[in-house]
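Suppose you are handed a protein chain with no further information: no name, no annotation, nothing but its sequence. What can you learn? This example shows the usual starting point.
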Amino acid sequence: MGVMKVRGLNELIERVGKVDRVGIEERVAKYGTRSIKKSSKVFGLKMAVNMVDLTTLEGNDTRGKVESLCHKALRPHDDLDVPTVAAVCVYPAMVKHAAKIVKGTPVRIASVATAFPSGQAPLKTRLEEVKSAVKDGADEIDMVITRGAFLAGETRQVQDEIAAVRDACGEATLKVILETGELQTYDNIRAASFLAMEVLRPGDFIKTSTGKTTNNATLGNNQVMLEAIRDFYFETGTEIAMKPAGGIRTAKQALTFLVAVKETLGDNWLNNTRYRFGASSVLNDLLRQLVKEETGNYQAPYTFSEASGGY
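A reasonable first move is to predict its three-dimensional structure. Written in structure tokens, the prediction is:
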């Protein structure tokens, strides 16, 4: 397909195709009806644990809080046979503290950058923030697009900025946050997905949300993005990864999102190099469900340490 040379948002939407809103809503309504039981449920719960980006993104974050988060990422539960989470996600200033705990382990270090969550800073400033985080040890960068520019039809500006951040990442993986709740329509979400994917590398991510707005990850916008990834893969052979973030709080929700992945993209995307949850609050419920499957009893929520002050 090549990198898009588009003049405006309407042209971009026409090029990548419009979304059948009714079809999307009907499709995602069926995912929650799938029955997952016993060994398949345990397998899915552990898979979901291994896909979590354990996150703290608060103004009162401290070195101690980040280090505690890292220890939980490495060992989510003392007694259960569960994997590590996928990554810890922190502000750039906290990357060096996370690196002391998890560098060299299966847990990756992700850092939000580019003036997260607003994206409202000069491009030079945003790029310097990315480079600093990578230098301090970040394996992954979560960036936000300039939503105002996108909605104003300045699609080339947005795409050029994504490309510049990708280059600033060096070898680090890039996750591009669309902030779907602010993009208003499924057509815009699909268009923004393609705009980003055109300049990403295989294994980079598109991501629904910052987790800092009122409308975060939904099955509907997740489905629009999954189908964009599928269509882009059929056209280019490039495998782009996906990360829903914000609003996923229960194990049941997480399993439903995994059903969507399996039925839309197949088993190749059912691993943490192709799919993540930006949903720290879901981790404890995943652990509660695993304890229930092992012992037959639910544990009280306070049995588990707090995952974070993040998503």
